[in-house]
Amino acid sequence: MRFLRAALYAGVLLALAGCASTSPAAAPRYKLFVSANGLYRVTAADLQRAGIDPNKIDPVTLQLFDGDREVALRVLGDKSNLAFEFYGQASDSPYSPFRVYWLRWGVASGKRMRESALAPPAGAPQPSFQDALLFAHPTLYIPQSGDLHASWFWQSLTAPMTLTVPVTLPVALPAPAQLRVDLWGETEAAATPNHHLNVYFNDARVADEKWNGQGAHPIDAPVPANAARAGENTVRLVMPGDTPVQADIVLLSSIAITYTRQFVADASQDTLAFPAGAGTFRASGFSGDAIQLYDITDPLDPLHATGASVAAGAIAFRSDADSTRRWLAIGPTAYKSPARIAPMPATDLHSTAQRVDYLVITYPDFVDALKPLVQWREQQGLHVSVVTTDEIYDEFGNGNASPLAIRAFIDYAYRQWARPAPRFVLLVGKASYDYLDYLNGPNKNLVPTYLLATPHLGLAASDNWFVAPDASTGRPVMAIGRIPAKTADQVARAVSKTIAFESATTGDWRQRALFVADDKDPAFDSMSNELAQKLPKMQTEKVYLSAHQGDTQATRAEIVQDWNAGASLVTYIGHGSIDTWAAGPLFSIDNVGDIKNGDRLPILFTPTCLDGFFYHPQVDSLAEALLFKNDGGIVAGLVPTGLSLTQPQDDMMRALYAELFGTPGTTLGEAIMRAKQKMPGDSPDVREVIDTFGLLGDPALRVQLGN
Predict the structure, then answer these.
(1) CB within 8 A of 464, min separation 6: which ones?
(2) Which end of the chain has the smaller Cβ count within 10 Å, N or C?
(3) What kind and span of H or E run contains 677?
(4) What is residue 536's predicted lDDT score, i.e. its pLDDT?
(5) What is the pLDDT, as a whole number, of residue 329?
(6) Do residues 639 and 606 lie in contact, with contact meaning Cβ atoms separated by under 8 Å?
(7) Handedness of CA 580, 586, 587, 593 (dihedral sign)
(8) What's the whole-model pTM score?
(9) Which CATH number is 129-261 given?
């Protein structure tokens, strides 16, 4: 395996999205972005700010959908006094912090929120209820679990260590509570126990836990009566460091508490949600007497409850329900507004009359920067279609951002559009494993990739997944590449390089190939020599760390010299990480400034690990730095997004070289596609290489190596 694990830690389903509603194309549609649970109110002024004229809306025909499911609305007034309310739910998607509802009118009568009459309160109200709070602060991404939902953690604990977490329990009553601490065992050893952790709630020790191995480990502990108090409390995690292992490391995921509390509204939110069956209930602490009550047991079809008694900032009612219901009482300041209202323009992506060879999927801001490349490909006879991520989300994801929607669209185009189906798919935009933007890093998810489980990294990015309809093999049926740009300037730079590479048909540099090898395994030199022998018509330059007796500085100087002299192909074989080749490092992102090869741009192949990690939210990979370099670098690269073993990497390179130099006039993306299709065997290690080696650059790049 070729990787530097320390660098990764320092920096670091196949389910198709539902199709859009079949509403008539003429009906206007708008997206409402919701980030939290609550009662939402949209006014005429809100609609006007979104470019909607409320005077042209027939309130009877207002309809709101969550996917294909219609949501009940409470509509108030019309025209300039129009307003509507609905119960909105927070996103439950791992790919977006927003749940997107979509709104239309003028098609049919809309679903309305029903009224539910309650009996007046009688008898003493219930004194308390059981509430559950979850405390989590995802800041640490560790993908070893292979599960996107379980790869984010609060903090790493290394024994001996004590972590104290403050937790607030609003209006708690002195009663027994239940505590749950979700952990992940990071280390394991033959000695036992591997882990030892004591849990304290305030001053009471509630758990003394010892266990073995890696993986999820929840601790459920009862909290004795009178230990929980209203307001501030603490959960203390103590790792004494008394286990017979070299290292005891545990990751904290979250803390959950179920406790007894009073029927008093959260003052900061002016709202109270609670479960209740039959009985009389009184909730107080609201900011005024304009309190509304809703039965939100069914979030898509909530009931507006009437008949409650309201006075002195409190609401009282009696429920005769024969089962537990979920109630929401809200004060005058509790109504929420959507984070954004945006149009959903009509598209024709479902039209089977589409005839496309070259499909570009781009972040909307990059469309103009792509125009020279589109024109270039059209001049070459390709039928080109440029589709934005917003268009795909609207038509294949009901407005929700997700790689599932992108895959659903690509799969639909491949199966349903007029033949021949798209040959090439170019993704244009940066991706990030931080889909929900926990870290608020500079690298946002402009065009998301897909993270799938792999044997050696856990979760790794796979653009190959988008074009591999057979989940059992992962072998692609279309050529795919990505320009992982953050700005339109970067897009323009990559486009200019692509056109320049195909336009420069002469020059001695096009007959040269540079091979670089690490010295940590003799197989690196052997594989490099074998690949070089497959290029009899090219001048090969070999820069091996072994030839310099491990002197990284001297080897690096020779790499820079030969690179700057010009080559049409650069291949590095050895250990690697996100921003480095080999230990030392032999070559890193800090050395990219020394590369000044101008328009003599090579294609880069790096059978290594992590070199193409284009989906980090905070740092850029070495391959990206070379791709977007102003005065040289590379035109494209086949680079890894994860970890993998030497033998399947070597198999990939042999198959790729056979395609590149055995098929005159091939494109880079199709050569990679065919090489993956011909990879020997179906082992998990082979599959890992197929999934995680991706092309940064244009898959339609015309390759004239050694000609």
Answers:
(1) 474, 476, 480, 676, 690, 691, 692, 693, 694
(2) C
(3) helix 668-677
(4) 86
(5) 97
(6) yes
(7) positive
(8) 0.93
(9) 2.60.120.260
The rounded distance, in Å, linking the Cα atoms of 634 and 695 is 12
Same fold: 129-261 with 504-696: no
Percentages helix, strand, coil for the chain, rounded to the nearest 5? 25, 30, 45
Q: Is the peptide bond before 422 cis (omega within 30 degrees of 0)?
A: no
Let me know: does 136 contact 154? Beta carbons within 8 Å: yes
SS (H, E, C) 314-344: EEEEEECCCCCEEEEEECCCCCECCCEEEEC
pLDDT value of position 705 = 73
Lookup result for tokens 């795909």: 392
Structure token pair of residue 558: 């020779």
What's residue 26's pLDDT?
61
Q: CA–CA separation, 349 vs 228, rounded Å?
A: 56
| Residue 511 identity (one-letter amino acid) | Q
Q: Which residues contact 74 (CB under 8 A, 6 or more apart)?
A: 84, 85, 86, 112, 113, 304
In the numeric block, which tokens belong to residue 542? 């070999």
Residue 598 CA to residue 215 CA, distance in Å, equals 49
DSSP-derived letter for residue 144 is G
CB contact at 8 A, 327 and 294:
yes
Q: Cα separation of 665 and 677, whole Å?
A: 19
Q: Is the pLDDT of residue 344 over 80?
A: yes
Of 355, 315, 665, 701, nearest to 503 (Cα)? 701
Least confident among 15-29, 451-465, 572-586 = 15-29
Q: Give the closest residue to 385 by CA, choosing from 426, 343, 429.
A: 426
Separation between Cα atoms, residue 254 and residue 25, nearest integer Å: 45
504-696: which CATH number, 3.30.160.20, 3.30.499.10, 3.40.50.1460, 3.40.50.620?
Answer: 3.40.50.1460
- The pairing of strands 358-362 and 292-295 is unpaired
- Over the stretch 266-314, which tens digit does the pLDDT of each residue have? 888 899 999 999 999 999 999 999 999 999 999 999 999 999 999 999 9
Task: Collect all residues with Cβ–Cβ distance below 8 Å to 45 and sequence separation of at least 6.
Answer: none
Residues 355, 362: Cα–Cα separation, whole Å: 19
Strand ranges (E), 89-188: 99-104, 114-117, 129-135, 140-141, 152-153, 155-158, 161-169, 177-185
- Domain positions in the chain are 29-113+337-342, 129-261, 504-696
**Tens digit of each residue's pLDDT (9 = 90 or more) over 622-635:** 999 999 999 999 99
Q: Is 535:568 a contact under the CB 8 Å cutoff? A: no
Instruction: Assign 706 a pLDDT band (cuts: 50, 70, 90).
Output: low
Measured at the alpha carbon of residue 96, what is the angle toward residues 107 and 484, in degrees to the nearest 5?
A: 110
**What is the rounded CA–CA span in Å between residue 688 and residue 573?**
18
Which pLDDT tens digit goes with each residue over 499-519? 999 998 788 999 999 999 999
